[in-house]
Amino acid sequence: MQYRRLGNSGIRVSTISLGSWLTFGHKMDEKVAAKCVHRAFDLGLNLFDTANVYASGRGEEVLGRALKPLPRHEYVLATKAYFPVGPGPNDRGLSRKHIFEQVQMSLRRLGTDYVDLFQCHRYDDETPLDETLRAIDDLIAQGKVLYGGVSLWSAENIADAVKLGRELGLRQLVSNQPQYHIFQREIETNGVLEVCAREGLGLIVYSPLARGLLSGKYTSVDDVPSDSRAADAVGREFMGPWFTEEGLERVCALEGVADEAGITLPELALAWCLRRPEVSSAIVGATKVEHVEANAAAAGVELSADVVAAIDRITEG
Question: Which residues are catalytic?
Answer without folding.
Answer: 54
